[in-house]
Known about the structure:
By secondary structure, the chain is α/β, with parallel strands linked by helices. It has helices spanning 10-18, 51-60, 78-85, 105-122, 148-154, 205-216, 237-247, and strands at 67-73, 134-137, 166-168, 183-185, 193-201, 220-230. It contains seven helices and six strands; from the N terminus they run ααβααβαβββαβα. The strands form two sheets. Strands 1-6-5-2 form a four-stranded parallel sheet. A two-stranded antiparallel sheet has the order 3-4. The relative contact order is 0.22. The structure holds zinc ion. Zinc ion binds at residues 35, 37-38, 40, 49-50, 52-53.
Amino acid sequence: MPSLTVTGDADRLRSASDALIPYLVPPPPPAADICPGCSSWRDVLGQDLCHNCADVVQALGRVPVPATVISLYRKPSPLRDWLTFYKDPDAAADDEHRQWPLEPARETTARLSTITARFLLENVGAAPLQDLDAVCVVPSTRRQPPHALEAVLRGVGLNVPVVSLLQRTTTPLEHSHPALGAYACTEPVQDSRVLLVDDVYTTGALSQSAAHALQEAGAHVTALIVLARRFNPGHDPAVAAIWQRQAAAAFSWRCDWPSTSAPPSPH
Ligand SMILES: [Zn+2]
């Protein structure tokens, strides 16, 4: 089983990706006010996890796979535009929040590939990227496959196959409510090591439900990488403070991988 590497011209990738750093905001390191499950504000006093991650535990009976976040984003921002319009280019022209100039979707996709490729390149050798059988995306709840994120990942030049291992079932799934049985595996995954990737993370309801389906089918989800984690500084002064702290922090492509041991569940 291969350990994940990124093929292609590393020097060119480094310069192209470093030019995008002004648009990226580093995720917060572990801290008393940060949820270890989702890198956001730990909003429940005296609990280990935030209320969204506690919902995951309650709905799925399992602690969340800690989200490994490349960047934070907020709306409006260029990064939000890229993550929205790479899969929905027709919506760009009329979007009142748009910050980034109109461009063909393939250019946006290529930019997201550059960000993802550089992140993976700088983390080659990390335990969650070793001995992988497959890289799998969280299926879209609204659009028919293939997911646009698969094109992003193909643009990375990975040595591990990008495979659709999951599909949505008819089980209702809302953006804020994790659900058992919302996804099903399309092929046997018993004992396989799967890197799960999603484009954005807000409550984790979708990606954690997807991770759960893989785990229930016997796969080891080595990590859940998300290109960007939504922050809403207007939600609470505490969120605004974390956002300001991180927006002022230096961006690093290297990641402190979440502990492979699961975060403790709420009492
Ligand atoms: Zn959380």
